[in-house]
Amino acid sequence: MTNQPLGADGPGVFTRDRLTFLAYGLTFTFGYAVAALGPAMPLIREDLGISRTVGGLHFTLLAAGSVLTGLAVGRIVPLWGRRRLFWTGGAGVAVGSLLIASGWHPAVTMAGCLLAGAAGSATLITVQASLSDRHSMNRPVALTEANMATSVGTVVPALVIGALVAVGAGWRPAFLAPAALWIALFVALRSEQFPPVRTTGRPVHRKRLPAAYWFLWMGFIPAVGAEWSVGAWGADYLVTVAGTTEGTASFLMAAFFGAMVAGRFLGSRVARRVKPFPLLVGTTTLGLGGAMLLWGSTATPLVVAGLFLTGLGISMLFPMLLSLAIGIVPDRPDRAAARIAIAAGGAVIVAPLTLGALADQSGIRGAFGLVPGLLVFVVLFAALGRRANAASQQPVRS
């Protein structure tokens, strides 16, 4: 593993250097921190005595932090630099997780969610822009693998929480891990350098992004909304519809998060041969089939199968949309990634809270009908973005 200059990958060559592995390590940490909320939510609700709507507010605040960061980071990056923003964001995720672990009142746990969301978004924006610069000729591969690292992080909490509940330790110790992981990465790789922020003749925060980018930007809203709706309420669906226990539901959510890992692992290899748009369409179709199976089932094996297929299909939506969007404005990866954080954060604000509120009113099974509808809109917005880009005669770089 050696350091490489900007865009050093050659045609067909993808080299993972120290920065690449560092980026994967902290995206794993962030994935663990935010995904732990889903399988832990039935236990948090029981422990704190809160409704599904209040539980959904935890995800809303996590996303609100991401939106706030997305609005501000375009101005912060030129002042702080990527390296400082990356490590500060990781520290914020660690502290936010500790607040969740120690909170005996929903106000404290929700404050931890807000901090983790804001700080984690700063880290992810830095990772996406840095990997796009470092691996410019293999952007879809690098971004898919970074998302795979996040997905690996998301599958672990379901197993950890299930095991902790089984031995009587409860859900709280599971939220100590992000701090330990951040400390380990900082001790081992704190001196690693990041690609510098690109400068242009016009301030980056004033350059207008094209219409094709904004269509793709809108595609992130249903894509992230579907992913977080299932991740946030899948365990509750297993308890309420399939009749499992809370501990078993937390454990079985590994089917969804594990499928996300498997999908991105396979997708990172397929992305070397298949263009982002057809790969996006294919995986969305698979996810739609899984969501319909999940929505229409009550037997535990079928619900778990639906979770797995949904996760497998959803897994490639974010990295392929991200590759397409940054490929339209490769000179402004930080700004493009920051605006995407706003779309993603907005989706997390609206979708899990909406699904939770619908579940409180009409039952969680009916509320899950939201997921297939969201997936249809992913392809619609991606197709509009592709058409607008072709009309502007600016081929998508992938």
How would you sum up this structure, described in words?
The protein has 398 residues and is mostly helical. It has a single domain (18-194, 210-391), classed as Up-down Bundle (Growth Hormone, Chain: A), CATH 1.20.1250. Helices cover 78% and strands 0% of the residues. The chain is built from 16 helices and no strands. It has helices at 18-35, 37-48, 52-80, 82-102, 106-134, 139-166, 177-189, 211-242, 246-252, 254-270, 276-295, 300-314, 317-328, 333-362, 364-367, 370-391. Helix 6 packs antiparallel against helix 9. Residues 1-5 have low confidence and may be disordered.
Can I get a quick summary?
With 398 residues, this protein is an all-alpha fold. 78% of the residues lie in helices and 0% in strands.
State the name of the first-level CATH class.
Mainly Alpha
Q: Please bin the fraction of helical residues.
A: over 70%
Corresponding CATH superfamily? MFS general substrate transporter like domains
Give the domain tally. 1
Number of strands: 0
- In DSSP terms (H or I, runs of 4 or more residues), the helix count works out at 16
Uncertain regions spanning at least 5 consecutive residues: 1-5
Query: How much β-strand is present in the residues?
Result: under 5%
Average pLDDT figure: 84
CATH architecture: Up-down Bundle
Give a short account of the largest sheet.
none
Quote the distance from N terminus to C terminus. 25 Å
**Which class of secondary structure composition applies to the elements?**
mainly alpha
Global geometry? globular
Could you tell me the CATH topology label. Growth Hormone, Chain: A
Computed Rg: 20 Å
Instruction: Spell the H/E element sequence.
Output: HHHHHHHHHHHHHHHH
